[in-house]
Amino acid sequence: MSAPAIALDAMGGDHAPAAAVAGALRAAADGLSVLLVGRRPELAAALERAGAPGGLEIVDAAEVVGNDEDPVIGVRGKPRASIRVAAELVADGRAGALLSAGSTGATLATALLTLGRIGGIRRPAVAAVLPVGGDGVILLDAGGSADPQPDALAAYARMGVAYAQVRGVREPRVGLLNVGAEAGKGNALARGAHELLVGEPAFTGNVEPSEVFAGAVDVVVTDGFTGNVFLKTAEAVARPAQLADDAGAAVLLGVRGEVLVAHGAAGEAEFAGGLRTAHAVAGAGLSLRVAQRLGDAQPLGG
User: Fold this and answer.
1) What is the C-alpha to C-alpha distance for residues 205 and 278, in angstroms, rounded to an integer?
2) Nearest to 3 by CA among 241, 270, 258
3) Mean pLDDT of 126-147
4) Residue 153 in contact with residue 193, Cβ under 8 Å?
5) Integer CA distances (angstroms), 138 to 35, 85, 163, in order
6) Backbone phi, psi, residue 244, to 5°
7) Crossing angle of helices 104-114/82-91, nearest 10°?
8) Is 59 exposed, middle or buried (0-12, 13-18, 19+ CB in 10 A)?
9) At 201, is the secondary structure helix, strand, or coil?
10) What is the dihedral of CA 276, 91, 40, 35, to 10 degrees?
11) C-alpha span between 125 and 142 (Å, rounded)
12) What is the rounded distance in angstroms from the CA atom of residue 7 to the CA atom of residue 36?
């Protein structure tokens, strides 16, 4: 059986569609199947400029949800937006995953509208992999929900464990990002989450940023605001040589299908890496494994 195609929102990102098309061609050269989703004339022209006219299948989508638009209003008001069409390809089984470098809010709204959420999840979380140690450290939430309740962080831990196992970590260790290791540290959210996480077998306790970068845990959980600031700070201080071109993209966990979010400033290499990550996630059936860990046996993708 051939590997599932990846639906690429080729209109999303600061350098779209040129960077998206170039990254898709690089991934295709490695044997991946990619569907370019977006305005057909622009994508055809980008393929022509790249020297590969007709080199990839284009799925026409005449509209785009901009970063300056309200994500929910934009997604609902533009049924032929590239991000919505890409998600519909996943829902219909034509694609095994979708990747977008467009608005994270629009991607989240589209995933919830088109694919739905896994039972037991109030709001999905963005899971990014920090290039720490041999296997990396999964950080979630990296920007999905700024003000979650403590029980959401407990769900993040279970989803993070499933993702780490897909990445080859047999017994993932989970830490709660905090200002100290003691159980009573942190704000009300951190203290409440700690009480719930103590019952999780994989939970090792609170961890400070230095412990995260030392690879003391395989999964670190926090709220979306803190996680996004943490991630952007790490990106700002990292040397360019430390950032691998094929580091991939963040995964949206908690929805019924494989959805990935690339950096808005993604270039050719980042798109290619994100597509490789999407291919791996789709092949592993990550969303199904997350659902099984959360006790939700309903069919995915419908």
Assistant:
1) 31
2) 258
3) 90
4) yes
5) 28, 29, 8
6) -70, 140
7) 40
8) buried
9) coil
10) 30
11) 7
12) 6
Biggest alpha carbon–alpha carbon distance for the chain: 61
Please report, for residues 30, 46, 220, the alpha-carbon distance to residue 9 in angstroms, rounded to integers and kept in the order given.
19, 14, 29
Place of tokens 């199947």: 33
Tokens 């409440």, residue located: 192
Burial of 234-258, coded b for 16+ CB within 10 Å and e otherwise, reads: beeeeeeeeeeeebbbbbbbbbbbb
Distance CA 67, CA 293 (A): 34
Closest C-alpha among 176, 173, 200, 208 to residue 189: 176
Tens digit of pLDDT for each residue in 164-198? 999 999 999 999 999 998 988 999 999 999 999 99
Domains annotated on the chain, with CATH: 6-119+254-285 (3.40.718.10), 125-237 (3.40.718.10)
**Residue listed under structure tokens 């059986």:** 1
- Given a contact cutoff of 8 angstroms between Cβ atoms, the answer to whether 89 and 11 are in contact is no
Q: Is the peptide bond before 17 cis (omega within 30 degrees of 0)?
A: yes
Does the pLDDT value for residue 234 go beyond 90? no
Q: Which two tokens stand for residue 270?
A: 């980042």
Quick: pLDDT tens for 59-108: 999 999 988 899 999 999 999 999 999 999 999 999 999 999 999 999 99
> What pLDDT score does 237 carry?
79
Residue 114 or 244, more confident: 114
pLDDT, tens digit, 9 for 90 and up, residues 201-219: 899 999 999 999 999 999 9
Distance in Å from the first CA to the final CA of the chain: 21
Tell me what pLDDT residue 2 has: 60
